[in-house]
Amino acid sequence: MQMKSESSIRELAEAMLRALAEELDALLEHDAERLARCQQRKSKLARALGRQRPSGPGLESRERRLLELCKARNLRNGVVLGIRRRHVVRTIEILYGLPEASQTYGPSGRPLEVNRSPRRAQA
Fold it and tell me: What is the pTM of this model?
């Protein structure tokens, strides 16, 4: 998707909302290829919005609301992505036979990486 330099903040924000909706659909459908395409489109739109410098008192109220909605939807998608990531990590731990209580948490509250080697079957 090529961004026209004359695109307005409103047009770019509306395109970002569509990209965020598609990204959420891809997350919920576990569609990694579609998710990658959505993230590329989001990056292009974010760069185009950055070039517009969408801030300050000159920003119209509707544009401000659209940008706030973009931010909220992006945060929501990040939460969904984090939940999916935790599910994948936990599934891998189960497959390796690691009990859930074996996790050690760091100061940030996130699990610390532990050297995990796969269990070997014994004959």
Answer: 0.69
Would residue 84 count as lying in a domain? no
Tell me, what DSSP letter sits at residue 101? G
pLDDT in tens, 14-28: 999 999 999 999 999
| Residue where the block lists tokens 């969904």 | 80
Rounded Cα distance between 80 and 67, Å, is: 20
DSSP states of 30-72 = T-HHHHHHHHHHHHHHHHHHHHH---STTS-HHHHHHHHHHHH
Structural domains of the chain, count: 1
Cα 91 to Cα 32: distance, rounded to the nearest angstrom: 18
